[in-house]
Every structure is written in structure tokens, then in C-alpha cells.
Amino acid sequence: MAAQTLDQVVNLCKRRGFIFPGSEIYGGLQGTFDYGPLGVELKNNLKRLWWQHNVYERDDMEGVDTSILMNKYVWKYSGHEDTFVDPLVDCKTCKGRFRADKLNECQCLLHPKLKPGECEGQLTEPRAFNMMFKTQVGPVADDESFAYLRPETAQGMFVNFSNVLVSTNRKLPFGIAQIGKSFRNEITPRNFIFRVREFEQMEIEYFVTPGVDEQVHEDFIKDHVDWWVNVVGLSRENLDMYEVPAKDLAHYSKRTVDLMYKYPIGWEELEGIANRTDFDLGSHSKDQSKLGLTAKVIENEHSTEKLTYFDHVTNKHLVPFVIEPSAGVDRGVLAALCEAYTEEKLENGETRVVLKLKPALAPIKVAVLPLKKNEPRIVELAKSIKNTLLAKGDMRAVYDETAAIGKLYRRQDEVGTPFCITVDFQSLDDATVTVRDRDTMGQIRLPIADLYGYVRERI
Ligand code: ATP
């Protein structure tokens, strides 16, 4: 049986050290979470697989890692100062503040079973609330010394468009990819790591000649759905595509398709894939109108750059169009956990909790377990097997002797370890070990010399 409620996944994450509430010993800080020993491995594996697919396996992509703090004019000309707002309503009775377009995700503060507005409380008219966090840069606090924490990683790629273009000698089409933290002062952070105030994004800005943008947009949608299914292991029936209606499009978008995942809380956005047109490059450029460009251009006296591309075929400058796939790392981790969480009834009546993660995502690939921890020769051999696997440098192997073997198997099942290797007395005689498969619980006997090849092939 798969996860029926988010609480099942939340409890497992806390119990086994995947994810903890942020600043917990001080009562927490709403909308923040800390990744624990296993969570950091899972999250890093997800990011590594994304980078592998979107950067290394393509000939047309470059990676960057840009600053979280940016010049405040970036956010003026990107349009975020004026339009990065959510509608906020107040309840006159319970004094709660809620996001007007997500009331279904909220609870009345006095009657948690009811949504705001379903109780006797009266809601105010919605008003615009800007979600960017402000901070001060430098020791003098005045009207000029503030900066925003970035609410998307995208702008770091737009402002570096010319740097990357020139330093890599790229021609259109090409893309810039980045994974990094973003911050949004969400009105109602909710649902564990689904909606938080500090999160990570995996984003691509893919630059194309105007005119081919619509086809490239389609190609990315298909490619990214396939990646979530084939690499992350989400079932295709748990993924859907939502065509964002024109009235809900972000200020920069000509068309956006949201990839929706069926979380236990319902269908929610996992990744947004937008056609950002020439909006951002155009508005960051100085006095584009002199170039005779038709883009939605704003006269930008603060930028010293022209973010254009010189097309040697037409001998003209153009502002590339941009296709942007933007996925949340945390929402990806949550989807992978929900998909993998399984409860199985065993013949003896017990319930086995097992995380059926794709082996490539699993925090630990192999657990090496001694059948007897009081037998020094077994312990020594088990530790040396673990060290040999670790020394290969491409898989996390652990040694564990802290419980009886049955209990150790259950613990590894719960954290998604695909293989348990047990060293017993026979191992001392014939240099073979037992390899147990997480999903089938089936066991086979293998020579120690073949272990690495066997495990490597399966992850
Ligand atoms: P939503 O409608 O759920 O608020 P959004 O449309 O504002 O999301 P985008 O601006 O498209 O989100 O951001 C791209 C991706 O970043 C989203 O698909 C999501 O995976 C992730 N993301 C955005 N906001 C958050 C958040 N508050 N917490 C966690 N992940 C987020």
C-alpha cells in the first residue's frame, strides 16, 4: 500500500533522519526545514541526477552558481518589485492571514477542521503582498542599502547571459542551468516541505531564436516528464500537465505548463515550464529601443549591458526567447518519498515499511551487516567489504552491527537501501556473502569479488 497521508511520510522522515522541522528546539520557524543525515544524501542524489541529465548529457548547456544577493535593480527590471505578489486576506475574527487563492490549503485558526471563510469569521478584501524577503547590505541602514533574497534563481542566469555567451563561444540555441536556494515569504507555508519559505530550485534558461520557441517548449515538457518517470521513478499516472490559463500567467510568460504530481494532499505543482519570451533579457538591457528591437522593452538606464545576440546569418542583433523549466528540489524530494513509501503486510501479521526508491536515489546503496558481532573474524571481513565498496568512490556503503540481523534489515528497508550484504561463518570459508534485495526480500549467495559489479549494475 502506498502512502495514504502526508503524515506517514512526515513521521518516517523525522524518525529516520531525513527531514526535521527548522529550529525545532526553539519551537521552530514556520516554513523552514532541515535535511538530516539521510535527507541530505537523497536531496544531493536528486540534484546530481538532474545535473547529469540536463547539463552533462547535453551538448548545448552550461552550468552556473550565482549569488543569492543581487543588485536591487535586478528585481525592479525583472518586474518582481511590482508583480511578485500574492493576494492576502485577513480574518476579522481569528486574525489569521491567508493566501486568498489557496484558501483550500489553509485552516481556520479557531476551527482547524474548517477552511477560512467556512467559519463565522469574515474575510477582508484581498490585497497584494510582495513575497520577496528584504535584507540590509553593509553597515549603514538607509533607503538605498537594502537587497532582496532572490525569489528565483533565474535572474542570476539572465544577468550573466553575455558573460556565458562570450566566455564559452556559444551559438543559439544554448542553455544555462543552475541549482540553488530561493526565498519566498509565503503567506501560508504548509504541507511539510511542499510550500516553504526557503527552498531550492533546479532551473534552466534555454535561449533560442524567436520563432522556434514554441517547439522547444514542447520538447522540454516531454523530456522533463520522461525524466521524472524514468530517472526519479514517479509513476506516469501520478503526473499530469496543467495548461496555465492566460489570466493566471506570470508577467513574463507567453505560455506556462505546470507538471502536477499527485501528492497525498492532492494534485499540486512540481515543476513549471514557461515560455518567458524576450521579457527578461529585453528589460535588463540598456536602451534596447536604439537597436530597433520589437521586444517588450523598458528603457533601463541602470544596466550597462545589451543582452543581445549577434546573428551572423542575418547580420542583426536579436533578443533571444527563453524557455524555462523550473523545478523545486524539495517538491521533487517529497514526490520521490511519497511515491516510494510502501506498507506491506507480511505473512506473520507484521507490517513492513519500505521505501522503494530508485537505487540511484537511495541515500545508502549497500549496508554490510555481520551475522555475529561477537565474532572478530566476521566483523573484520564485513568492515573490509564495506571499505572496499566505499573506496570505489561511487556508492555509499555503511557497516551496521547495532541490532540483530532481522531488525537491521527492517531499518534498511525503511530508509530505502536497495541491498543488504550479510557476512556469516560460511563467508570465512568460501569468500561468499548473502545479498538481500530490498523489494523482494529474496536472497542470493555471491562471491565477494563479484559484489561491486553486481550492485553497480543495479544502481
Ligand atoms: P505555487 O503556485 O505552488 O506557489 P509557483 O507557480 O509560484 O508555485 P514557480 O514560481 O513556477 O512556482 O516556481 C518554480 C518551482 O519552484 C515550482 O514548480 C516549485 O516546485 C518550486 N517552488 C515554488 N515555490 C515554492 C515554495 N514556496 N516551496 C517549495 N517549492 C517551491
What would your notes on this structure say?
The protein has 459 residues and is α+β, with helices and mostly antiparallel strands. It has three domains: 6-84 and 134-337, BirA Bifunctional Protein, domain 2 (2-Layer Sandwich), CATH 3.30.930.10; 86-130, no CATH class; 364-458, Rossmann fold (3-Layer(aba) Sandwich), CATH 3.40.50.800. Helix content is 29%, strand content 27%. The protein contains 13 helices and 24 strands. Strands 3-10-11-17-14-13-12 form a seven-stranded mixed sheet. The protein has a five-stranded mixed sheet with strand order 21-20-22-23-24, with helices on both faces. It has a three-stranded antiparallel sheet with strand order 4-9-8. Residues 290-298 have low confidence and may be disordered.
What are the segments in which pLDDT stays under 50 over at least 5 consecutive residues?
Answer: 290-298
Oligomerization status of the protein chains: single chain
Count of DSSP strands: 24
Q: Calculate Rg over CA atoms.
A: 26 Å
